[in-house]
Design brief:
This protein is α+β, with helices and mostly antiparallel strands. Helix content is 56%, strand content 9%. The strands form two sheets. Strands 3-4-7-5-6 form a five-stranded mixed beta sheet, covered by helices on one side. A two-stranded antiparallel ribbon has the order 1-2. It starts with 9 loop residues before the first strand and ends with a helix. The relative contact order is 0.11.
């Protein structure tokens, strides 16, 4: 099966509030990132690219902190949206895991977790059907999952048996071990969080049968809407990429390729919490990061491929979006591969 693109897919807009919480805990309310995150609408979705950029920016702001671990340890139900409140209203951990399996797209697109029992352990094991996320993002999700399980059961003494990561060993390994309370393994086939099998029967302290039913109805409605939107998002990004490759990334051209009016395309994009200019900017950034990491093209060639009239304009835009020059980003990518 071909690996599917992830960068243009999305995560819950509630995760912006999680990063705001992290900055609030450090009293860093005047940081420009905090202001940008506050403007995100929790009812809209963040693209993975936006989510990755925000996490990378946090790590640059706090280079000496294990940002992924600290963000994961800040997770609360309110940062997970409906799926957070729904699992918190379940009878026990098994029921909560089953609801998470069913509705996890409300939290993030891309690879899906499945419940796996192996002897006296049980794990949430993520698929590998999509391109890799980022290491910092995956660490946030694993630590955040453990944090939330402890919170909803009231069992702060509950520890993971093991956490598996697809990535090479992290500079945050000791912090991950301390946060998860179990072994941390790298270069595994898939990301996974493993718990004692007995954890499935732990009661959820805020179990509410009636509320669970209401939240499940809401989750079904939201999931249905996401499934309808997925076809549009895929078709839009396919045509936008084609238009960019043909040096004509105009809203009219893309709308015509999608057999809709410009006004309809604008409205559909607004429903996704974005606009044509932002989508084009994010696509250019995604491709720029890919080309820079591959090191097959010069900066001038990358700029021309992405539709910039000169290398300087590309460099200015890239630095504004990432906080790094293209050259610095490329050097960092080389260093990460050698680690």
């Amino acid at each position: 099966m071909a690996v599917q693109a992830l960068a243009h897919l999305s995560v819950s807009g509630d995760l912006a509030a999680l990063l705001c919480e992290f900055l609030r805990q450090r009293g860093d309310l005047n940081n420009p990132l905090y202001s940008r995150l506050l403007r995100f609408d929790a009812n809209k979705r963040l693209t993975f690219t936006q989510w990755w950029q925000a996490l990378d920016e946090l790590q640059r702001i706090y280079p000496d902190l294990p940002v992924s671990v600290l963000v994961g340890e800040s997770v609360k139900a309110s940062h997970l949206g409906v799926i957070g409140y729904l699992t918190q209203a379940c009878h026990n951990v098994l029921e909560a895991f089953q609801r998470f399996e069913r509705y996890q797209r409300l939290l993030h697109d891309g690879d899906k977790a499945r419940l796996v029992v192996d002897g006296d352990t049980v794990g949430l094991v993520w698929s590998r059907d999509y391109e890799a996320s980022t290491q910092i993002s995956d660490e946030v999700f694993i630590v955040g999952m453990m944090t939330f399980i402890r919170s909803m059961t009231g069992r702060e003494d509950l520890n993971a048996v093991r956490a598996d990561f697809f990535w090479q060993e992290s500079s945050n390994t000791s912090a991950l071990v301390a946060a998860l309370g179990g072994d941390v393994c790298f270069e595994k086939e898939a990301n996974a969080l493993w718990l004692p099998l007995s954890a499935l029967q732990l009661p959820v302290k805020q179990f509410d049968f009636a509320l669970r039913g209401l939240l499940e109805q809401q989750a079904e409605g939201l999931l249905s809407g996401l499934n309808r939107d997925e076809d549009f998002i895929h078709a839009f990004h396919t045509e936008l990429l084609r238009a960019l490759q043909n040096s004509d990334p105009k809203v009219g051209r893309v709308a015509k390729a999608l057999a809709m009016s410009e006004r309809t395309l604008v409205r559909r994009l607004e429903e996704q919490g974005t606009n044509f200019r932002e989508a084009l900017l994010q696509l250019r950034l995604q491709l720029a990061c890919q080309y820079l990491s591959e090191q097959r093209l010069t900066l001038t060639e990358i700029a021309l491929l992405l539709g910039y009239s000169e290398q300087a304009a590309f460099a200015r835009t890239f630095r504004k979006l990432t906080g790094q020059t293209p050259r610095t980003y490329q050097q960092d990518a080389i260093r990460r591969r050698r680690q």
